[in-house]
Amino acid sequence: MNPSDDLNDSLNQFKRLIFERYLSTNVVVYIDDLTRCKGIPPEVTAPGLLLSLEYGLSMPNPILNFQLNDDGLYATLSFNRNLSDTFVPWEAIVAIFNPKTRFSCCWPPANRRLFLMCEPLGEEPNAPNPPASKSKLSVVR
Fold first, then answer.
1. Whole-prediction pTM value?
2. What is the CATH number of domain 3-140?
């Protein structure tokens, strides 16, 4: 077995652990390589930005048919109110962000830099329930 395969398997398991840890709230995953994914409409992508998809067990509209395994995430997601069965492999995920805790991890490809920009928390950074912010992840080549 190739040592890089072992490293990729370990990295994918790490991504899965982080995803599972924050699934009870909301998890935003950022996808770099859409060619590996299935069921994601091309019109939801934007040049220069990674695609972000939000998963979570406490979302206002629950996700249907959600499954995850060693290969990746399977879920029925809504894009502009149209349901689509999707698959996102762990290899395509370059960052995971939890809006509630503001925890994030990034695994940028060697030829890119990723910048995660979040709105400021406000005047009370130690407040018990800081406001969740929408984040954007940009790609710099």
1. 0.75
2. 2.30.30.220
